[in-house]
Amino acid sequence: MVDVRSQEERTSQGPLLGAIAIDADLAIHRLDPASALRLRSVASTDVEWIIVSSDGAVAAEIVRELRQRGLVYSRSMAGGFAALAENLVFDVIIGGIHNHRDAAVMAAH
Hints:
alpha/beta; 6 helices; about 45% helix; about 10% strand; globular
């Protein structure tokens, strides 16, 4: 799972624990194994990337480009982080104070 929300959005909306945070402008290059800017761990197009943006629109655009580059298993989260938060999917995950502290530490790295 890749969180392409801005740092400002992640701070105000809350963390997506377990996701890789990558700026939306760099996500395509960081996830494409043919790119010189790819993440070190990205080695194959056979990976399922789930892209999450604030409302889903930016994620859908990124997925279109990734698929054009051969990453056919890329998906976007319908409705984005807002849909997850609205449906209280994260209530258990981010409900505790210790989780907020841990998320802040993770976001700082």
